[in-house]
Amino acid sequence: xxxxxxxxxxxxxxxxxxxxxxxxxxxxxxxxxxxxxxxxxxxxxxxxxxxxxxxxxxxxxxxxxxxxxxxxxxxxxxxxxxxxxxxxxxxxxxxxxxxxxxxxxxxxxxxxxxxxxxxxxxxxxxxxxxxxxxxxxxxxxxxxxxxxxxxxxxxxxxxxxxxxxxxxxxxxxxxxxxxxxxxxxxxxxxxxxxxxxxxxxxxxxxxxxxxxxxxxxxxxxxxxxxxxxxxxxxxxxxxxxxxxxxxxxxxxxxxxxxxxxxxxxxxxxxxxxxxxxxxxxxxxxxxxxxxxxxxxxxxxxxxxxxxxxxxxxxxxxxxxxxxxxxxxxxxxxxxxxxxxxxxxxxxxxxxxxxxxxxxxxxxxxxxxxxxxxxxxxxxxxxxxxxxxxxxxxxxxxxxxxxxxxxxxxxxxxxxxxxxxxxxxxxxxxxxxxxxxxxxxxxxxxxxxxxxxxxxxxxxxxxxxxxxxxxxxxxxxxxxxxxxxxxxxxxxxxxxxxxxxxxxxxxxxxxxxxxxxxxxxxxxxxxxxxxxxxxxxxxxxxxxxxxxxxxxxxxxxxxxxxxxxxxxxxxxxxxxxxxxxxxxxxxxxxxxxxxxxxxxxxxxxxxxxxxxxxxxxxxxxxxxxxxxxxxxxxxxxxxxxxxxxxxxxxxxxxxxxxxxxxxxxxxxxxxxxxxxxxxx
Length: 679
Ligand SMILES: [Zn+2]
Fold this sequence. Notes:
alpha/beta
């Protein structure tokens, strides 16, 4: 099979594929024998088996740990003999939630403690010295079962632990924070100080708290590493992470902690909740979270297995095809494989999962091709403005952690999910400022950056909403945007595109959103060179009036677009999609690496190597086939290869040239299928 190789440090020829297995499938002899037999019939599904060491999400007593380790030693040995790499997934170290609390670890250990002092029942504080003794025994018992690897699950976090939304505010954690920062807070005074003006002071304190959380994770990971590698230095440690903003997002330090002095290779498993395929858009949301997480991983990490999970594990809960699309989409977002957690909880015959395994095995060559092509090359394109401590600037008016009425899902919408429509009209997804060709700036996010960082951002290519514009003015950088917010309208308001060149054939087309949800910013022009791309109009076509979208090139050469009307939603019309693609080319000074030129509902990931070759992964996110799909790629190459999910290759030639872009027409892509284009 021909393929362009974009391999950077990764030298693997295949994807890193594994299967996580609950005790129901390995504890009993006949069930384990049946499992190995079934996997043997679908050998391509996974190269590794990760045995879950327990079946509950709260830590279990050490007697239960030792008992499972005794059986696991046999299961691991026999899995290795069958040709698999075999290891253990520690389901609960600190614990995920308080489920099955009566069966959980008991004793005089400090429980995870919330901002109001309330404590969890069965989730523990990683800084409690007594609890560390349990952790040492737990991981030594696992290491003595002779695994190739040990995974730490995503309970290595301080937020969203059942009833404890934000931890850990126990006396030990407060003392460690005070000692590290030269402070003398009590829990109550610290929580009050998080919300005490001036803003710069509260921002610094909040950032210090996020760093404290990151440090606590470094500390417990180092502790685990020492205990495991004392027994066998070759055991690879791996960690699962989800959204870790409250944990300080210091993935590079966490990797170093798990690698230890011997520099043992580390595995990583990015994930987040997409458990059923009843809402397919959530697959894209998960791919976005995974992409952001992967962007933080050092290049030394090659083995990045995205979590594929179908909790609570019912074969009709998520289709086999959806899982295959997930694996490929998450590889496109920067993973190098996948960890399936898809078999049942219980001691039941796994035969009903056979069609699923058969399907996933058949897709394996496509996953391998994607990983071989991409390596760890990072995608380029459109990235949200973001940094590792972005959470510190959330709730700038106060109540940062002090209220249970600030649901995390609202935070995720504001920080992560706001560009989801952008990523379904054929603009390429990127996940960091280093690979951003255009940056998206939303809401209060400017507050997460200092003045030089914002000046730098505004000297490049930025698309922002009205709230971000207002924040930039408050920070004294308004003149770089060309506009100000002159007022807000929250009703009786639609948008009409002007006859500006960038609107092309969409000039005169209108768009109606819901201004009561996204109030419309009335834009005031600060400079004669600003251009107006849209104005407010009534739905009946009357009263074309104030500007609600415009562009500006500032003195630093930076190009800025301000969208006051429905900046992030209602983008699925041909006129709006056309405008945004032409706009993003303009914003980037025609450095945008590519985009889907035709009017299709697709997601796109682009990678470029130093020889100018491009690998593009296209995902059709519509239930209609994407026919006559045209993609514009910034390249001088005039021919390419398209490979579909069956690994069928088609050679294509350029349709026409458009400035620095070559247009290629792809063979039809079936609904919710992917194709790889290499040019
Ligand atoms: Zn604590």
